[in-house]
């Protein structure tokens, strides 16, 4: 890193209103835009198999229903694991530099998919390995959110992180809407293979090659690294010792884990429970969940993240009960309506929980230096920024495990009982636990413990 390198910004003070209005705002928004582009494509690649798996039997692949759900689930697990190193990569290599790399590696899952879906003799273990590379797209979220958290002032983090996340999340909807359409077109089928059952499965991978190239170009020419975001991995790993890192990670499985897990499983769930219904309608769920995420962040900025999260889990539980009822009745209209409400609440919860993270770390660090002067306060705010950036990625990594657990649970439930009810009942119980944790740690007004801030009074 060199001081004169234009890709690095050495003076970054988003909390200084004069600095922010003089040009900081423009730079932050430009980085946010290209971060959203790269993350959107990352999410699209991550969820490719949610559609591809539904078409494999039609293309001559003889995999069981449980194996198809595993192909949908394994990218979720790999994506969750990739988020851990991706979280710390931004502060080590720079946000711009890592965005270039993380976007470029998406050529691996897209091109390998394009080749192997044209080989019906591919054994399941190999196809599972190919599907796992799509998890590279899941890692993008952690680095992207960590990076953007440094660009915006605390008062705008809920909006900025919510918009960044929504732009990425909506990639799930994009891939589920566009893939079934583009798989019918021979124009982008570079392998010139004959369609199987009227579809060109290769296009599911090839359709993302040009967008990936655009994302890499945008990151190279329009994004920046922040010197102030540089930090050692040791300093960032301090978050692992923080109690609230683990509490929020558990709660985030309930919100984002539900969003990504349901998004991955929804097309195959429709196909197995309502065979007469086209899976092309599946994109509606992730679309609703993505669009509602900035709204959740905005509400949290206005009211308080913990309050929104608490009531949101109540709504998620009610919607899950509705899904349980209508899937048992084989009523698709009711099933779809309840699932769309469930997706809506996952989006709102995603926004509100992510708004809680920087607030919690800010309050805890400021509490430690109370009465120690302005210099200590400035240092505490910088520490809070570094820690909350790392926590955002770490918590996002843990939460993404839902992308594996939910499709896998549906697959096991259907294999054992013929329906998804057992899995849904487990998810309902999980939401009840998340509801209790939110109230106990962030809303319950109790005598203040020595050495700890009152997070309920701070309205995190």
Automatic annotation (TrEMBL):
Protein name as it appears in the record: MFS transporter
Species this protein is from: Bradyrhizobium commune
Transmembrane spans: 32-52, 68-86, 98-118, 124-142, 163-188, 208-226, 246-270, 276-295, 307-328, 334-357, 378-402, 422-443
GO terms for biological process, alphabetical: nitrate assimilation; nitrite transport
Gene Ontology molecular function: any one: secondary active transmembrane transporter activity
Family in the record: Belongs to the major facilitator superfamily. Nitrate/nitrite porter (TC 2.A.1.8) family.
Protein's cellular compartments: Cell inner membrane
Record has Zinc-finger as a keyword: no
Topology class, membrane: Multi-pass membrane protein
InterPro entries according to UniProt: MFS, MFS_trans_sf, NO3_transporter
Keywords assigned by UniProt, alphabetized: Cell inner membrane, Cell membrane, Membrane, Nitrate assimilation, Transmembrane, Transmembrane helix, Transport
Pfam families, sorted: MFS_1
Superkingdom of the organism of origin: Bacteria
GO CC annotations, alphabetized: plasma membrane
UniProt keyword Lipid biosynthesis present: no
Primary location: membrane
